């Protein structure tokens, strides 16, 4: 039982790789008679399953006090690999705005750096509910853009950008309050 959160984290990393393979190399995976729209559905399904593992690894770790150093380090990295893989695929399939993707990914790298600096100065910048909303809107946007059957994906993407920037500012202010 104690390894389940870490297994889920590792599965998310593998699913992120599989997601990118399905998005970019569908013609090598599927028989020629399978419609290209199935790539969208398969990619969306893989992404949604991977996103669910993000919820359950954290829930199980907290519920059963199974936190680990591995989980603390690799859980956020697995999250970023999944989002990065999805956005790279969406950019290459011309389904996502490059500026929106850049803003989201730049914020993710910035906050990762901020967390490293905070940890080195022995400060703990706790996650806020805004981070959960940010993740939720990013997942929603990516899922709709991957499925490619509803035009609202772009709207959700820009909402995700706004929430992502706002949560980044929140983390920044919390960090600077902690060090002052």
From TrEMBL:
It catalyses: a CDP-1,2-diacyl-sn-glycerol + sn-glycerol 3-phosphate = a 1,2-diacyl-sn-glycero-3-phospho-(1'-sn-glycero-3'-phosphate) + CMP + H(+). It is found in: Membrane. Coiled coil: none annotated. Pathway: Phospholipid metabolism; phosphatidylglycerol biosynthesis; phosphatidylglycerol from CDP-diacylglycerol: step 1/2. The keyword Signal does not apply. GO terms for cellular component: membrane. Belongs to the CDP-alcohol phosphatidyltransferase class-I family. This is CDP-diacylglycerol--glycerol-3-phosphate 3-phosphatidyltransferase. The gene is pgsA.
């Amino acid at each position: 039982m104690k390894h389940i959160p870490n297994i889920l984290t590792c599965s998310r990393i593998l699913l992120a790789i599989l997601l990118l393979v399905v998005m970019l190399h569908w013609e090598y995976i599927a028989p020629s008679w399978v419609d290209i729209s199935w790539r969208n559905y398969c990619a969306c399904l893989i992404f949604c399953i991977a996103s669910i593992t993000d919820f359950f690894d954290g829930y199980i770790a907290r519920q059963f006090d199974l936190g680990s150093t591995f989980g603390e380090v690799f859980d956020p990295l697995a999250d970023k690999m999944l989002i990065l893989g999805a956005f790279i695929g969406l950019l290459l399939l011309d389904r996502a705005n490059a500026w929106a993707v850049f803003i989201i990914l730049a914020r993710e790298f910035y906050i990762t750096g901020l967390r490293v600096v905070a940890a080195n100065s022995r400060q703990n910048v706790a996650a806020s509910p805004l981070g959960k909303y940010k993740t939720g809107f990013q997942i929603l946007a990516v899922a709709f853009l991957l499925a490619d059957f509803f035009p609202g994906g772009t709207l959700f993407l820009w909402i995700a950008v706004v929430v992502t920037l706002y949560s980044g500012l929140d983390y920044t202010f919390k960090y600077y309050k902690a060090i002052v």
